[in-house]
Give the backbone structure.
Amino acid sequence: MNYFKISITTAIETREVILALLSQEGFDGFEEDDFGFKTYMPEENYDESVIKKLANQFDFSYKSKLIPQQNWNAIWEANFQPIQINNFCGIRADFHPKFENVTHEITINPKMAFGTGHHETTMSMIEAMQSIEFKDKIVFDYGCGTGILAILAAKMGAKSILAIDYDPLSQENTIENCQKNEITQVKTVLGELSVVDNAEDFDIILANINRNVILNSLPSLFLKTKQNGQLLISGVLDTDLDLLRNTVENIGFSIDKVIKKGEWICMQVTK
């Protein structure tokens, strides 16, 4: 699959808003730099009119470049750097040296799937997971990307993990990364949320996606959560905190805590 890389130059004040709006439109793989950020979209889904409309609204410049599939791995390897979240979790590629002082080390090869742990949404999910008991729990990773959160849940003692994503490349990469980390309790499924039954099957649900998908999925996620089970949500801007709070409470969840990192929030709720 070919991808478009869109390099966006914008002011710091509007960067997070533009990034969030693009995320809601299906752009992914965000990489921030000194001038703005880069984002990616499969060629078959790319609609430049979305970028043009936002550029007119927020006054930013952009460049689009088509990246053939065969070049993608080299691009990721050139840009991917190890990341460490406190002494709790370290994430690296297999060509990086091992961490010295972390409880859980995850080795990934991101390839064309997204979610390397660098974005604030993933980092806040990992921080929140640190205070949750995963031992012998049944877990659902909704929108698994590279499988980082599923792998971490397994390393923390989860009994079984269902990881789903609509992108075949994400499913393939999650399987590969589970094998790389010698994880056997993760089952991957290709598809949307509708492929998972609305039964109270999960002790813990991890949902690091985007605002629109999360808001639309919350009623179904409530049905899939066991009584007293927990849901971790990320991918929502702090400007939408009140909307998210009202939505989860109206559905029947109670809010345990909110983590803010940059302009993004991660919310932990209980059924």
Remarks:
- The helical segments are 12-24, 48-58, 69-79, 120-129, 148-155, 168-180, 211-224, 241-251.
